[in-house]
Amino acid sequence: MLSPEDEQLLLGLARRGDTGAYGRLVRAYQDLIYALVFRSVRDSAVAEELTQDVFLKAYRSLGTFRGDSRFTTWLYRIAVNLCHDQRESLTARNRRRETSLEDVEPAPAESAAPAGRPDQVLEASEMATSFQVGLDALEPKYRDAFLLRHGEDRSYEEISEILGISVSNAKVRVHRAREMLLEVLRARGFEV
Is residue 162 within a helix (H) or strand (E), and if so which, with residue range? Predict the structure, then answer.
């Protein structure tokens, strides 16, 4: 993370065409943006491509960035919108196939296998799969708010800026997403 002063200095230079300054901004924030995008699309190749698209779109739009919020907040908003567009594109291609929460199967998560007794590992894996099923089935407005709060540890104020909604609406969306996820887990037999 850059200090607000360094960020403003680099933004000023980048607006005047200094690609090296913009490169420093990219290096400072690419891991944050990639993590958010990956949590949304769960495909490393797609996440890499969308992350590049975020920074390309931001570069092309530097002149429109007013600086009312942090640069990272603006990047998050661009990333959320691109992820939403990507999901809509996939949804449009798969519209013939309607599914319920119970029918959705998640893409495999890219993570290390948990350690422990086999029954604990199996239960944790089943719960993670069920959680991902629920997350994948959420409407984008709920999924985005939930991921920003719990995946990116963003404040409700930041979520409201990123999604262009009120703080109270951000809280409602995160709460509803939690409730829907708990409902999926309970329906699959987990005591949560």
Answer: helix 156-163
24-38, 128-142, 164-178, range with the lowest pLDDT: 128-142
pLDDT digits (tens, 9 = 90+) for 102-149: 555 555 544 444 566 776 777 777 888 888 888 888 999 999 999 999
CATH topology of domain 1-98: Rna Polymerase Sigma Factor; Chain: A (1.10.1740)
Q: Give yes or no for a contact between 131 and 109, defined as CB atoms under 8 angstroms apart.
A: no
- Contact partners, residue 71, CB within 8 Å, separation at least 6: 7, 11, 25, 29, 65
Q: Is the Cβ–Cβ distance between 147 and 36 less than 8 Å?
A: yes
Q: How many CA atoms lie within 13 A of 49 on its CB side?
A: 8
Q: What architecture is the 104-192 domain classified under in CATH? A: Orthogonal Bundle (1.10)
Three-state DSSP state, 192: coil
Least confident of 31-35, 54-58, 150-154: 150-154
pTM score over 0.70? yes
SS3 label, residue 154: coil
Six-digit token pair at 115? 């350690």
Contact 166, 157 (CB under 8 A): no
H helices of 65-113, in order, are 71-93
Tell me which residue has tokens 């429109």.
64
Q: 111: helix, coil or strand?
A: coil
CA–CA separation, 155 and 71 (whole Å): 15
